[in-house]
Specification:
alpha+beta; TolA/TonB C-terminal domain; 2 domains; five-stranded mixed β-sheet; three-stranded antiparallel β-sheet; 12 strands
Length: 393
């Protein structure tokens, strides 16, 4: 996994989530189904962004000013304050810490899935309805995939209580909230160092519970009685590492909403969800896009020679260097005749100097493709630097 790209993606997603949150507040989006859809799309964008940055799929725009991006190596010569070596000990330490945290969270997710899968298999089916099981390992209602898990004592619950609980849990099943919770946890494992991943997970879970509460009210169950049930189950919550169940931190807000008797929000039509998904593609491309500065003026060491049609070094970036995410710079010296025609080009200095990266040959090709003018009409030389910088690093 390319750690600099993950850091870059996390910064972009943090800004993106902040902008989306601000837009939601400005337009006053009150429908929890609508907000849930927005943040689910943001979750998809978060997982897709590293791949888009790694494969450089998104467009790159030329701008007068280059936007700041995090880099593993500075774009300029080494030994400068902005240069950070990817091969240095601090960077290796950061990568080791990140890898350990990601593997720990992935292992926790996998163990939770396996454990709940075993609980679901061992649970006894509830005769009154398919897809509903009871287990002594469950303290309060939960869902695992498409299965509703209830405590063993649920068989003795009054009909009204059981119907209200099933209305809530089956709403989770219809909305596939459990699967989205797992995807959010996968996103947390990938971006565990970024606050946007953890906030996004909690927001998705709160909205999933809110929309399921609305399903209970829409089924004409008394909001006050249902609020009492939430409070009762909050006193004996399940392990929430994977299962969708009552969360203590969310109960107070949900109870306040129920007691306020806010009318249940309507679910979004399928066509609206597909339109939103289609709109996501260009938005993600915009978030993954990069900027590059316009060609900088070239320093003239011998007056009289002018570059008037310099080519873009990105067009000659060595393939090996791109694959290994290596940046470089080369100083070349060009000799021109009295008419401004190229006579000779040679490399003065290259960094990195390893010929397998091919920066020297690429810079010489840039110099050969560049056009020159020589108003002095005397054989002259010019020395300039060619920089090769990865826009998405």
């Amino acid at each position: 996994m390319n750690f600099p790209i993950l850091v870059n993606a996390s910064v972009r997603m943090l800004l993106f989530c902040a902008v989306v949150w601000l837009i939601i507040r400005v337009v006053r989006l009150r429908n929890p189904h609508g907000e849930l859809l927005v943040w689910r799309l943001a979750l998809i964008a978060s997982l897709a962004l590293p791949a888009l940055l790694f494969f450089r799929v998104a467009p790159s725009f030329v701008t007068p000013l280059q936007l700041p991006v995090l880099t593993a190596n500075g774009a300029g010569p080494p030994n400068t304050p902005s240069s950070v070596s990817l091969h240095g000990l601090p960077w290796r330490l950061f990568v080791a810490i990140y890898t350990s945290g990601a593997l720990l969270l992935l292992a926790r997710l996998a163990m939770g899935l396996i454990g709940l899968w075993r609980i679901t298999r061992a649970a006894a089916p509830l005769p009154i309805m398919d897809g509903v099981r009871t287990s002594r390992h469950v303290q309060s209602p939960a869902t695992f995939g498409g299965t509703v898990l209830l405590p063993v004592e649920s068989c003795a619950w009054p009909a009204g209580k059981l119907e209200a609980i099933l209305a809530h849990e089956l709403a989770h099943v219809r909305s596939r909230d459990c699967y989205w919770s797992w995807i959010a946890q996968l996103n947390c494992a990938l971006f565990w160092f970024s606050p946007h991943a953890w906030w996004l997970r909690r927001r998705l879970e709160l909205l999933a519970e809110t929309t399921s509460d609305d399903a209970v009210v829409a089924a004409r169950h008394d909001p006050v009685t249902y609020a009492e049930l939430l409070l009762d189950f909050a006193r004996r919550p399940n392990n929430r590492s994977v299962a969708m169940s009552v969360a203590e931190s969310n109960v107070s807000k949900r109870i306040e909403r129920l007691l306020a008797r806010i009318p249940p929000a309507k679910a979004l039509p399928r066509a609206t969800r597909w339109v939103a998904l289609a709109f996501l593609a260009p938005v993600v491309m915009l978030v993954a896009s990069t900027t590059r500065a316009a060609p900088e003026p070239v320093s003239i060491y011998h007056s009289g020679v002018v570059l008037y049609d310099a080519v873009n070094p990105d067009d000659f970036y060595p393939a090996v260097a791109i694959q290994e995410n290596v940046e470089g710079w080369v100083v070349v010296k060009v000799d021109v005749d009295a008419l401004g025609q190229l006579v000779d080009v040679r490399v003065v200095k290259a960094e990195p100097a390893d010929p397998r990266f091919g920066f020297g040959d690429a810079a010489m090709e840039v110099a050969r493709k560049t056009k020159y003018s020589n108003p002095s009409q005397q054989p002259s030389s010019i020395t300039f630097a060619v920089k090769f910088a990865l826009a998405d690093k």
